[in-house]
């Protein structure tokens, strides 16, 4: 098997001993692998022995061949190593020769450079002499008055002619006129020939521009660069660029398109494209835009302030947007300052007094909005006192019912309008936007504060505050019958409006003043407005007196003495009295109205005050009647209904007061023997004994000796 492995491993196919034995046995007759053939172990053994001998012979032959190849490989390796050594020696010799050659080349190059310098030193004066000779030749032609050279007669060589005339012109200008040479050169130093050629070059540039020949324009511009008329060439280019460029109504869009087109072209024509483009932009701003802005603004400057401000804001915005687009181009080092100066030059006369126009328009517009609203209501605004004697008289009249003068009948009108508020806020919002855009950064906080002051004057003072004052003056006295409490509607609308005012304060004013000292002034002004309105709302708490008065009127009209002392004790079919039903219905409406009219802590404060007064009213009302046993039960049912109504207040103190009142009403029906036990209960134990006694005295059986004895 080992011999077989060695043999087969020499080939590409891997050797598997089992497969090899199987194949050998299969090929051998009597190996037992063929069907129907008897197995002959001797013959198989003989075949194996013969095959092993063959493999041994083959192994020896291969081994000899391997040894021969190894000897040959060693011999060739020695010969290759010897050859490599010889090549290394040859390479070293070649490297030495290369170094010698490199040194020789460097020596020759040095000699050549020296020789070139010597030749240049000789050739430069020679070239100058040749050029001077040519200039003298052309100079003679000018002196003779006959230009015969091809450079002057051939129009295609205008570039060479321009270079010659430029040099002769400079030479002639350096010579004094009083010398003979200067006198002879006067024709060259005079503007005639020089300017004639300049005009010819500019005309050629103009023609090339009209034909759209960029390469020819570049050549002529390069020639004119050394002439005094180069700036005139730029002017001609700028003028022709604008021909047909402003045909639409949108001059700003046309200007942007023109500058983009010229920006792509100018670098191919002029050696200083940023200067040419900047000059084009300056020309557009100073000529096209300035005249357009003037025509748009002067038309409405004195006749229509609203349209004037809208146009000013729109034109300034579009101009700055155009400036932002132009910032993408190369206009030199400080293009931001350059464009800012151009914008300022256009609008400076309009921006100097912008805020005065803005404030004047805002004042007249706001006054008109308010007046138009009051006219629609057929209402003449009247002066209502806000303090001092008149305020004291009004409050005394409301609180004490003294007839100190008639109150104002508003006929249910709140004199507050969402439309008016939206219009005022919209006008102010637009004013803030214009202020942000048109004001100088140093004046922005001051101007924004002035606009805010206008909003405060017309929205807060002239509209909200006037409505509150009118509402206060329209509050009816507490003894009025069927009084309509419109002041709560005023409070509700004023609260909504002030939220809108506060939102504009935060959204539009704060960003303009957030980093300036004007911030504290605005916050203080806003705080003063809030405090002033809260004072008036606090004064409106007298509305609660009217509510209590209405409740008193309902109780007086609906409550009967027989309700709590019925003639037939055994035939009472009602659960609670009619007076209780109407009072509870009225109270629930007022509670809902208060919740809708106010927000925050103000709701709880007013409801607590109303709840306490409501409790006192019911307490004092119950003290006016005598109660039989069944009447006492009906009183308890009434108080239970009042207590349900008190839950709508969602004020713990109010609910506690009615719980105590309900417990007191139990004294009207409890058995005499249980009075002391009830009075010492949890809800009544801490009450004054006189209060308990006053309720017990309301019982019709109080005079009985037994009840008096038990309670004492």
UniProtKB/TrEMBL annotation:
Residues 52-90 form a coiled coil. It comes from the Eukaryota. InterPro entries: Sec10-like, Sec10_HB, Sec10_N. Residues 41-149 form the Exocyst complex component Sec10 N-terminal domain. It holds the Pfam family Sec10_HB. Keywords: Coiled coil, Exocytosis, Transport. Belongs to the SEC10 family. This is Exocyst complex component 5. The gene is Exoc5.
